[in-house]
Amino acid sequence: MESTIHAKEQETRIPTSAGFPSIARSDARILILGSLPGQRSLQAAQYYAHPQNAFWRIMRDLTGADGSYELRCARLAEYGIALWDVLAESVRPGSMDADIQLETTETNDFPRFFLEHREIERVCFNGQKAAQMFRHLVVLDVADDPKQFVTLPSTSPAHASMTYEDKLVKWRAAIT
User: Fold this and answer.
1) Please, what are the domains in the chain?
2) pTM value?
């Protein structure tokens, strides 16, 4: 009994990770969704800040997004790409998607987002976990919605089973 109480106390001490606001212009056509920022991204207050994450390298190769974080984000916006995450917050010790405690999740407000960004025609998930969480946690009225939903290989360094070149091919097909 005492060990159960101790485990619950440990669990409640883990801070909740809060995501970032979307980066999106009203005329965005593509929305890229991750799961929730990892520790490096939270520390830097930037999407995909881990130096080994291939996201910004892929975006540079596909859209020319280069330079400072602000310049890269501006380039994506010019290209019609919006960035966000499925989750607004969750308990997530560490940076692995597998560490996200699903019972503590709060999703972002997608009905509102899609009302404000009516030109979104494709939603691209950065990895299986983002797609899975979206399908299970987000409720949308999609009966009359022609959006395409595309699951792409994760750009995370934890997804090393696919080469950069193979990831780039799949991302290029979805983004360009």
Assistant:
1) 31-175 (3.40.470.10)
2) 0.88
